[in-house]
Design brief:
By secondary structure, the protein is an alpha/beta fold. Helices cover 30% and strands 16% of the residues. The chain has 2 domains: 31 residues; 347 residues, Rossmann fold. Strand 4, helix 4 and strand 5 form a beta-alpha-beta unit. The chain is globular. The termini are far apart. Bound molecules: alpha-D-glucopyranuronic acid.
């Protein structure tokens, strides 16, 4: 390379570094690294004229500062964040996005282990199935937790917990997994008349690479999300809502919990169970979720600090992606397509994102100082990969206030080049919307690193 070319390329790097290092609340779009393919942008834009897939059409926006308290005062030390500001931010998300769920463990909740096998999956695992009855009453809503733990190595085991879309029986072909009897969305769990069928056993196993998880010494626990609340809008008459809803004058309030709130609450009830199971390491539970269940995992992790590591896979709008970018799925769009996911108050921000007192970087900041990992997929522009990355980046100041690094870089990485050096991990992987073995391997790398760093492994 000639000297002049070398000089020019160094200048470009310097400029990129300068613009990548943000100091104000105004987001810039000059990150280098991954970029959406222009063919994909063109073709998606043609399919849906009202959806923005073009970076240059992202409006200018100013993000709310997680470190400015409600009274306008700057939060300048870790103690003030932990004692006051964190609770304020959590409350803003409860009031405006996900709604308020009942607090704590229900008084009469019971756990019943209805299956225990010591040598399953070719001798590599222990299997347990546990039924959680939310009210302890017969025939009341209950959820089944399916658990696999490695058969070798020491106990208790660090375990990943995640909700699944099609019933526990879809995550592996193991014929002893109880076939779900809960309501299924059409197209899920091999459903016929909204009920699961035998043919769907193991149909989602590629998203649950059990052999690899067990081999790396981790356990896996999963629950069908429809056990907690069936995923359709029925005015909150089914699932756990009617058991615990607090009505005022017979009416649900604007901040009453939606379905994401209920699913996240269910994850905390699973955590209640883990605390009673001596084989599971309650200090090393990672909560994970894909897509709508990634939004749910983030909300569960934000509220329940018993989760030691929080993972969002392709969660997009209402999950890890910044709402103010209005790229791909928007607040208005999600509230119209899925009116039951968030609380009623969230609808005030349809086409009105700038009035939101929070944005999703603040949700990620609620995980601090715990590790959090966010993924995007190259072709999943609906979920706004860059918006997911930027939310991670702008959660950084809270991590730094607590004395640790967030992402440890301000730059969008290249495709398939995970960022794993700090306490916030991120990658954008090749391919489309989905939970893959590649994603899992990165989650396990991050868990290995952080759990070991804390001297727990
Ligand atoms: C839809 C929805 C997304 C959601 C996804 C999923 O695409 O618009 O917000 O994440 O479904 O859960 O699969």
């Amino acid at each position: 390379m000639s000297d002049s070319k070398l000089l020019t390329s160094s200048l470009i790097v310097l400029c990129a570094a300068f613009f990548g290092a943000e100091s104000s609340g105004f987001a810039r779009t000059s990150e280098v690294g991954w970029k959406a393919s222009s063919e994909l942008v063109d073709s998606l834009s043609k399919q849906s004229a009202e959806t923005n897939y073009r970076e240059q059409k992202v409006p200018k926006y100013a993000l709310p500062d997680p470190l400015v308290a409600s009274d306008g005062k700057k939060v300048t030390d870790a103690a003030a964040w932990q004692a006051e500001r964190r609770a304020q931010v959590l409350d803003l998300f409860r009031t405006h996005l996900y709604g308020r769920a009942p607090v704590g463990r229900p008084k009469n909740m019971t756990f019943e282990q209805f299956d225990f096998e010591r040598n399953v999956l070719g001798g590599s695992a222990i299997r347990k199935q546990v039924s959680v009855s939310f009210t302890g009453k017969k025939d009341a809503p209950a959820m089944d937790i399916l658990i696999y733990l490695p058969n070798t190595g020491s106990k208790p085991v660090a375990t990943f917990v995640l909700l699944n879309f099609g019933g526990n029986h879809t995550i592996n072909a193991d014929p002893a997994i109880k076939l779900s009897t809960s309501w299924m969305r059409p197209g899920r769990g091999g459903s016929v008349n909204n009920l699961a069928t035998e043919q769907s056993r193991g149909s989602s196993s590629s998203s649950y690479p059990l052999a690899s998880i067990l081999k790396r010494g981790y356990g896996l626990a999963t629950i069908y999300y429809g056990d907690i609340d069936p995923d359709f809008h029925d005015g909150f008459k089914n699932g756990v809502h009617p058991l615990f809803d607090k009505l005022r004058n017979g009416e649900r309030q604007g901040d009453a919990w939606g379905s994401i709130g209920a699913w996240a609450w269910g994850l905390s009830r699973a955590m209640d169970y883990f605390e009673t199971d001596a084989d599971i390491d309650q200090a090393r539970i990672s909560v994970l979720g894909h897509s709508r269940l990634g939004k749910t995992a983030l909300w569960a992790g934000a509220q329940d600090e018993r989760f030691a590591f929080v993972i969002s896979n392709n969660s997009g709008c209402g999950g890890a992606a910044l709402s103010r970018r209005r790229f791909g799925e928007t607040v208005g769009r999600i509230n119209t397509s899925f009116p039951h996911w968030f609380c009623e108050n969230f609808k005030k921000f349809n086409d009105n994102e700038d009035d939101l007192p929070v944005d999703q970087h603040m949700l990620i900041s609620l995980m601090a100082p715990r590790p959090v990992y966010v993924t995007s997929a190259d072709k999943d522009l609906w979920a706004d990969p860059r918006g997911e990355f930027l939310a991670c980046k702008h959660a950084g100041p809270v991590y730094r206030l607590l004395g640790i690094d967030g992402l440890g870089t301000g730059r969008m990485p290249a495709l398939d080049k995970p960022i794993k050096k700090g306490t916030i991990g991120y990658h954008v992987r090749s391919g489309g919307h989905g939970l893959t073995e590649y994603d899992w391997q990165n989650f396990m790398d991050f868990a290995d690193k952080h759990f070991a760093l804390r001297g727990r492994k």
